Amino acid sequence: MCGIVGAVAERNVVEILLEGLKRLEYRGYDSAGVALLQSDGNLTRIRRTGKVQELADAVANSEALGSTGIAHTRWATHGGVTEANAHPHFSSERVAVVHNGIIENYVTLRNQLTEKGYRFTSDTDTETIAHTVHEELKSGKNLLTAVQSAVNTFHGAYGTVIMDKEDPSRVVVARSGSPLVIGLGLGENFIASDQMALLPVTRRFIFLEEGDVAEITRRTVDIFDKHGAPVEREVVESNIEHDAGDKGGYRHYMLKEIHEQPTVVRNALQQRITETGLAPDVFGEGADAIFKQVKHVQIIACGTSYHAGMTARYWLEQYANVSCNVEIASEFRYRKSVVHPNSLLITISQSGETADTLAALRLAKEAGYMASLTICNVPGSSLVRESDLAFMTRAGAEIGVASTKAFTTQLTAFLMLTLALGKENGMLESDESGIVAALHSLPAKLEETLAITNGIEDLAEEFADKNHSLFLGRGDQYPIAMEGALKLKEISYIHAEAYASGELKHGPLALIDDEMPVIVVAPNNELLEKLKSNVEEVRARGGIMYVFADKDAAFEGDESMRVINVPHCDGPIAPIIYTLPLQLLSYYVALIKGTDVDQPRNLAKSVTVE
């Protein structure tokens, strides 16, 4: 959520800032703004609620110029969606600030600054940063030392960029809990919360670490750690491709990304799996030695990634003979937990910057886990840098807020991890060969599954007047039902819940009537007959069901049950296959509801605050 772009150059940086904001639109936001400094000290600010294009139009009409500037897309936390609450924020028309994160002690700071005569023009926590830095400047400090002093008073998370009207040749940035990256140019340098924003102007990046403060001019980048000591950070050459401006002929990014899944899964498998098993060092140097010692796995994640972890637990315990716990990161980090001997901690995140997951990783390191592995889509992200091992999912840039291809590549990664851990824990040869064969068939099976689009589009019309729904699954399909419910509520705003089918009699049956669609995932596996009994329970109570079933599962449709045949697939990959029709269902229902599919209300792509 929230996006930061900044630049220090000799040329006018307005278009660079605006293009950077456009490339961060996928993260979710509700207002945008830009502040520009010219060499003569003139400070200009333009802010707008709504889309970045609204800001771009206002900037074009103003003919604003500046060789040093900062820009921001805001996702409201403190204060409503108003122009006054949009970033950048000023102090005394001298200091300009953009900020991602939350200053938790802002009320105390606000009261202290008000007593010193500062007047607040917004309801945000961010404005306290501007006034605190200004107060430090009044004592004769330069911008760098003022920021270094100011950050010692902040509690919470911040990625912030600060300009001083009286020193237009530089900006100062600070990172605590919220990511920032510096982009290196020729005679110019840049700052952003995500390297995607800067790909048009540079491929060379420095990722700031926790507690870093940096002073950036056109020709220099000086970085200081949390103790104020000068440090060197690695310069990374990025090869990321970004196609945020290209929907590839699809109506929405989400639909494009759904249809990319055969390709990205093929990429995730490429050179990692052989005809008989995993290629060497798939999970990184030293992974094999770690895996030989693993007796327990603790998975930590949020949202869609949590559902991937839930699915993986079934695989790891069934095939790899390794015990596994899965927990929501925001719960894990705030409770006392017991660390099992020889435990591997696994974090999952599309962005690698999810605040609760990152905090949980840091907490777990102190708790004594044997090693940490992250499954992530963004090279160079905080989770990748701070974990012992990293497995990149290779899903490519995912622009739609509702995750699709990131999820299926996470599941693909977990099947490969199941092979790796199973190898050290007595996995049956038949299970190993079955998973390997299933993975080889997976891209083609995904393509076959996408061919049933028309039937799903037709049945979506029956959800036009619905406000609630239930999703049912058994075994490793239960987390897939959870993911299906999440997708539907995210983008269509229909209330949706998921249950393990065996739980119907323990409460959910009370909700069944002809106004409550019940969506069932029904592969042809050992739990099918149990699932059919659950379906009959719903049918007997007048429920309307939509069953996504293996074509060999022998469901017969009637006025109370629509059956959508899904291609037959081997058991290990069934959760991945059955994810696609649920994604398509949520997409087509959202179209009928007329919602913003790619940027659903109140949500953000990368959740970098608690």
Nearest-integer average pLDDT? 90
- The dominant shape is globular
Runs with pLDDT <50, length 5+? none
Number of strands: 25
Look at the structure and give the CATH class of the largest domain: Alpha Beta
Count of helix runs: 18
SS-derived structural category? alpha/beta
What does this entry look like structurally?
The structure is a single chain. The termini are close together. α9 runs parallel beside α13 (405-423), α9 runs antiparallel to α16 and α15 packs across α18. β12 (213-216) and β13 form a beta hairpin. This protein has an eight-stranded antiparallel β-sheet with strand order 3-2-4-1-10-9-11-15, covered by helices on one side. A seven-stranded antiparallel β-sheet has the order 5-6-7-8-12-13-14. The protein contains 18 helices and 25 strands. Helix content is 34%, strand content 23%. The mean pLDDT is 90. It has two domains: 3-237, 4-Layer Sandwich (Glutamine Phosphoribosylpyrophosphate, subunit 1, domain 1), CATH 3.60.20.10; 253-593, Glucose-6-phosphate isomerase like protein, domain 1 (Rossmann fold). By secondary structure, it is of the alpha/beta class. The radius of gyration is 25 Å and the shape is globular. Homodimer. The active site is at residues 2, 605.
Properties at a glance:
610 residues; alpha/beta; Glutamine Phosphoribosylpyrophosphate, subunit 1, domain 1; Rossmann fold; eight-stranded antiparallel beta sheet; EC 2.6.1.16; Ntn_hydrolases_N; Glutamine--fructose-6-phosphate aminotransferase [isomerizing]
